[in-house]
Every structure is written in C-alpha cells, then in structure tokens.
Records
---
Amino acid sequence: MFHTFLIGDEAFTLSENLMKVYPGQHPRDSKERIFNYRICRARRVVENVLGYSSSVFRVLRKPMLLYTSYLAVKKSKVLII
C-alpha cells in the first residue's frame, strides 16, 4: 500500500501528510541534504508536468460555449447544434 504525501516549501506548516525541505545549510552527503535534493527534484517534475499539460490542453483554460437550448434528438442520439 502506498501512502499519499504532499510536497511543499517553507511557506506551509508541517503536517502528517506534508513533506518539506529541511531549513538551512547541510554538509555534503548528509541525509538532510540528500532529502532536500530529492524533494526539490520531485517539485520540479510536478511543476513541469503541470506546465506541459496546461500548454497542450489550452482549450481547457477557456470557458466552453455550449448552448443546451438547441438540442436535436435524432435516432436516440443527442446532437448539439
């Protein structure tokens, strides 16, 4: 079973399901520095996926203009005219 976690930065308060970076500078190859690197990498991946999705599906940024009062029923199919 996988656990669900949220990734946040310093602006969020720490909770049970939120993972955020350790504050301050840490020595090289320490567990805190490796953890910070992995959290930052995960945040970058999520931000890139969301940016890519919003650029590909630009039609979802605008409201869809559908006129439901002009419905025509033809052979048990509903056609939007």
---
Amino acid sequence: MPVLIPFFGFLGLCFGPIVHQYYAFSDHILPVEGGLMNRIEKILMDQTIYLTVKCSIYICAVGLLSGDDFDTCKQTVRDKIGPIVLTAWKFWPLGMFVDIRGLQLVQFRQNRGSLK
C-alpha cells in the first residue's frame, strides 16, 4: 500500500499543472460570466475533449508504469474509454454545472487536480 502513495503523487505532479492550464484556458474562452450558454458549452467541452484526453493519458500512464508495453496500453485505452465516458456523462454534468454556477470566482472554484 505505501508504494501507491509515491505512484499517485507522481501522477498528481504530472497532471496538476496541465489541469490548471486547461481550466485557465477554458475560463478564458468561455468566461463564467457569459451566462447559461457558456456554462453548457464548458460542460460539453469538459465532458468530451478534456475527459477523453485526460482519461486516455491516465490509463496509458498507469499501464506503462505497471510495465505494460505501449501497444497493450493503447488497447486498454480503446477497451475502457467508452464505458468511462458513458459513466461520467451520468453524473458529472450536474456536478460541474453546480460547481460552475455556484462558485463564480475562479480562484475559489475547484480545479480538479490543480496545484493552484
């Protein structure tokens, strides 16, 4: 179990700055103050582009760190990404809408995984 702490710490250090930059970029192109349509577009962007890319990288990184070769990692991503995206669509859009709507100030909004 203690081996998992540095492993997930390493993944957090890798993803934290990227996640922070993604949310800063999405706030720049789709400001929270833009109203309901901006919120919907931000949720769509998060639940399609961001979710797919981040989960694919995460699954591949876990596989590579576990000793799998790159082809095995690519196949694992292909097998798992569809169900992950479908499951995420059942829960996260509502949570993200509340997060974006309820916390208007960027510095107080939760940036999942951010080191900010």
---
Amino acid sequence: MSVEYTDDPHPRNVYWDMWGLPMFTIKDGAAVLFEVKACRKAHPNHYIKVNAFDNTRGVESMCLSFIVNRPKNEPGSDSSGRKRRAAGCATRHAPIRLPSPLGPATSRRARQ
C-alpha cells in the first residue's frame, strides 16, 4: 500500500507526490488509514489516493488505486454549468458534471 497526493489530477499527470514510504508488508488496514488521515491533515486541499500492490509474482506491481480525498473547490468543475445524463442507463437519475474546458489551470499546469 502507498499514499500519494497532488494538486493536479490531470490524467497525463502520472507523477504524484508520495506520502511517506510504501507499506509493502502491511497486514493491518488501520496503519493505512492512519497515513491517509495524516496526509489529509497536511494537505487538505489536494487529491489523495491509495495504491494497492500485488507481489504474488515476485514483482511489486500496482493492482488497485482509488482517490480518498478531493479538494472542496475543484477548479473548472462547475464553472460552465454543463451537465450530461448517462446514456443507456435508466436507473441513474443524478447528472454527470463535466469539467469546464475553460476553467482555471491549477498551479502546476500554470508553471509549464
């Protein structure tokens, strides 16, 4: 398991900052939750994700990754007001919010 954070969740941003060291031999979920809480406390306005590794073949490869924290205000997420309904799904009633293509760039992308 490992915990990573970033202020730029763009799909091309594959290099997130690592919080602490990877926990390869962890058997207790409380240790991971402790690290997630510490990362949230230090970086409340960042995206935080947890990565799970699989070493059954002798190689530490990532098999699962999910986001556990998002900032309260996401740049460009609601500025255009565009909404789309899921196509072909009769049971889903909540609209899918599309990010605005003209929304403000995050600090990392603005530096490039």
